Amino acid sequence: MRGTSSTSFGEVLQQAEGAFSAQSGTQESTAEELFSTADAVDASNQLVRVLSDPGRPAAVKEDTVRSLFGAQVSPAALEITLDVVRHRWSEQEDILDALELLGVSALLSRAQADGVLEQVERELFEISRMIDDSGDLTIALDGSREDPSQRATLLRRLLDGRAHSITVALAARAVGRRTGIKPARRIEEFARFASDRRRLAFASVASAVALDETQQSRLAAVLAGIYGREIQMILHVDPDVVGGLRIQVGDDLYDATVLARLTRARQRLVA
Asked: Which partner for 206 in 102, 182, 217, 246 could form a disulfide, CB atoms 3.0-4.6 Å apart?
């Protein structure tokens, strides 16, 4: 994605990550619902045009989503889909890619919570290379181009017991969407998405009041300085937060006072 779509995806991903982190073992079902929603939208050219049309009021798009999917998916998946259609997208295809990648992110969130994100990333790269190295497998997957579900079934059978269940689900999704991109490249794309996530640290930030853009930028800079890498912040408003700010990065939990002390200590070390 580029331009407007890239910005929009970053915003919806940040919002969705907050929902995924709050889920307890339901990320996989949310992912399947997002994949199913993407497929349903993809099956109707008219629906794709309606939901991606920048000139159409957001309320109309939201009503369309609620009427079609409100009774079909969980509240979490519905809200994520509504957030997608509220945003602007440069190309029609980008809205489909966004829904799919949010489903992928839900599965990766589960992998991260289970401590297997690195394993899933490695296995996806290995599966991509396995397809490239096997002429028979490449032919078999390409031969099922008109029925992507056959490709997904074939890969599930091949990987059963040989890879983590989240890896299998991601690989099956990668080859199971109707697209002109080669199956091995699709799986590689998902692997790179997992790799980007693993390198990017996530911070859950609860504040007594909403942080403005300047405060968010300053906090992001402080966290990046402490951890030596970019930090993706997932923001929540909680009036009961003591001291006005609570931040969790992995197993590290800070309040505003602790964070201030760490910042001053780092500044003294640099000086």
From this structure: 246
